[in-house]
Structure formats: C-alpha cells, structure tokens
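Sequence in, structure out. Go.
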Amino acid sequence: MTRPWQTVARVETSEGALELRQRGDSDFLITIAGRVLMTSQARRSEEALATLPLRKNPPPRLERILIGGLGMGYTLRAALDVLAATSRVTVVELNADVAAWCRGPLAPLTDGALADSRVTLVLGDVAEHLAVTAAGTYDAILFDLYEGPHAATQRGDDPLYGPTALARARAALSPGGVFAVWSEEPDVPFERRLAHAGFRVEKQRSGRGGRAHVVYLGYTLR
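Output:
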C-alpha cells in the first residue's frame, strides 16, 4: 500500500499555501496552492543546472557563484560537489521558510548543503540582488527558480527574464562567465532574448523521458 503524503509545514503566501509534504523517510515534495513545484525524486534537471555549466563546459574561472532560488537544495549540492574548497557560493532565496526547511527536514537529502562553509545565504529577490551587483562579480549565475521563462515573462519589463534583467545578469559576470537558467519547457522567445543580450546560447535537456525541462546556458565572451 502506498503511504499517504503528510503535510509537515505550511506557510501562507500571496500565491496560496506553500506546503512541505513528506512520505516515508526521504520522499518529499513542495506545493503551492496545491500545485507541485518540486519533488525529491525528480531532481535530474535541477542537478543538471549546476553540472552542465560548472563541470561539462565550465568558464575559465569558478571562484564566485550566484544561485538564484534554493528549492530543495539539489542545485546547490551539485554545484558544491564540482567547486573547489576556495570557491564561494551566494544563494539568494526569497522565502525564509524554504531556507529553514533546507536546514531542517530536507537537510539530509543534500548532506546539509546550506551549512557548507563556502555558502552564504541571502534572503531576498535575486532580481534586486543583481540590480546592485558590481560588474564582473560572478563567474557563474544559476537561476533555479520555480517559474522559469514562459509566455507571461515576455514583456519588456519582466524583472527576471526581460531585456534589462538579462543585461544586468551579463554585466554581473566575469569574462567567459556563464548564465544558466532552468526552464520548465523550451521557450524560443527567451532564447532569442538571451542571444540579443550578447550571450552565446546553448540549450540542453538532461537525460531522456519525463517532462521536457531544459537548461539554457548563456556564455559571455572571454
């Protein structure tokens, strides 16, 4: 018999109830307004968001990394497994409760990634963070946000995926740096905006089967 899901934490947000649910010892999911955002069993694309730009085709330098969005911590864990002991990772997470879950019941899933001495957690909006980031600060920027680029983000003033936002991300990168974005499905207009912003664009899908999650990689000139 399949065990039922149990709600272990619930937080009200402007988009509805954000819930952490658990089944058994290590099976978790996070929902918002009843919609599943992420699960501990389906994490391939979240891990690929780190391994594709940091291991498979890394920039010339990997000293300072920015991760926008914490999720269950799988992208962070995958990044830490690639990076050197001297590297530093800044994680910008909007929701303090999600960070608390990653330090609490979700911590065993990632060997306590958030507690790694290389990690600095910033509670806030990653778009606002990039707006005040000095040029050339980061060698890689990874967006692990629960809503990637899609039709509703195509307006010019979109704070994450619009032209101004992409220009800020590019400016925040060092020469040869990479901007990696998780997307729930392919988004051709976003791909074009990346290229228009001056990135050399690659689109990767991790593995076969399942949802068509993709990782967009935008490289700056060396």
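Check: The helical segments are 44-56, 74-82, 96-103, 126-131, 163-172, 188-196. The longest strand covers residues 173-183.
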